[in-house]
Amino acid sequence: MKNLPDNPQITPKGLAPFKNFCMTIGEIPSSYLETMSYAEMLLWFCNYLKCTVIPAINNNAEAVKELQDLYIELKNYVDNYFTNLDVQEEINNKLDEMAEDGTLENIIADFTTIPELTNRIENLENGIIDTIMVGDSYGAGHSNGEIITGWCDLLAKYLNISANNYYKIAIGSSGFCHKGTTNQNFLEMLQSIENTITNKSDIKRIIVCGGYNDGDGSTVNQIETNVTDFIAYCNQTYPNAIVYIGMIGYNNNNNIESFTRRFNIADRVLPGYLRGTFANNINQQNKSVYLSGVENCMKDVSNFSEDHIHPNQAGYLKLAKCIYNALIQGYGYYTQNMQYSENITLINEFTNSSSFSVIRTILNNQALFNFQGSLIFSKSKNITSNSLIIGNVGCSNYILGCPSNPRYPINLKILFDDSSEIYSSSYMSINSSGQLFIYIPKTGLIKNIQILPSQCFLDTKYI
User: Fold this and answer.
1) Same domain for 406 and 301?
2) SS3 state of residue 225
């Protein structure tokens, strides 16, 4: 058998480099073999064995068996070649080559030049400011003589804004009208940082929340004018920004000053914030938005610290979440039911067994009142006026104390001295002296008055 050694020792492990081995056979030109893939060469070689070599040694049984075994081994090698092929080293070498000649850089550049992605990366790397927050001591985090995390920094976390992407200016005692500890109001505070913000066209939103300090006696018109001026400055200086205004100030203190402040907040500050925001929209194409619903959050007395003016940390968290809801959903939903109860101090004419209770529950912008009581006179009283004073509320009662002196509807059962009785609808209110009184529809000598379970709703603006 020509061209074959007497004892061929051919195994797959000994075929490297396989191309050179095929060239030694000499059946096809070397130039043709250079262009063949490994798969093509393996298939050609198998065909060569089948059609040329094996027929030539048919008379040698031992050689045929050995060669057939080698053929089977080689065929399995071909079948499993690509399955077992480890190309990781080749891939690494190719990537290194592409990195050196600049090919890889060009491919990556095609993706990193997407404008939105590029802007986001540059903003994060360079600390581009796109949000400004303006506030008073609530924004600074004041709480019973300490500094904790205020609504500005908490809101940034809810909005997923990094520390490098917003600017906060919050100064105690400040407001749209009231000048704070630096003798600046909100507009002057914002103007003071104008030169530090070089990317004015990148500012997308300006969030301003306050209110408590503007309740010092400023009129509705003064507040409205200053809100409008603030927004006009923002529209001119930060042309791509929307201004968000929120009234969040409140207190739960029990004194004349605190009651007056609550009166001013409901009667002047909130209307001024609303009117100033909406008046600006007439000519500015909705470049200002009132954060609806945030005015209710601090009416939950559990949000206050021991100074009864500033929030505690839980209160700041709820306040920031409420502002976030107003920004994202259009209303500062505060879904937790806030329920308070109080027993009113009754006048001395009633026996010790007399009682009167008020339970108030706040549900977002509505307050639900439940009244019930039993007023028993020590001795029958001759009622000559339709107004019967039952207790001294004054300005200390947080639940009923409200600026507009609303009439709370109640239902009465009146027992007269002659044992006659009547059932009647009536109302309860607070007079100018801070005294709680009920309307008596029928005068006469009265033994006792039952205030039947009564319920009414009232807008929380008046609470």
Assistant:
1) no
2) helix
| Enclosing domain of residue 265 | 127-336
Q: What pTM, to 2 d.p., does this model score?
A: 0.58
Determine the length of the chain.
Answer: 463
- The tokens describing 423, both together, are 């059932």
Share above pLDDT 90 across residues of the chain, in percent, rounded to a whole number: 42
- Please count the CA atoms within 13 angstroms of the CA of 213 that sit on its side-chain side: 24
Query: What CA–CA distance (Å, rounded) separates 203 from 133?
Result: 11
Let me know: does 445 contact 380? Beta carbons within 8 Å: yes
Tens-place pLDDT, residues 202-258? 999 999 999 999 999 899 999 999 999 999 999 999 999 999 999 999 998 877 788
Cβ atoms 370, 343 nearer than 8 A: no
From the list 261, 457, 250, 438, the residue with the least C-alpha distance to 350 is 438
Q: Do 332 and 344 sit in the same domain of this protein?
A: no
Separation between Cα atoms, residue 314 and residue 85, nearest integer Å: 62
- Give the whole-angstrom CA distance, residue 158 versus residue 173: 26
Helices 38-48, 61-79: axis angle to 10 degrees equals 160
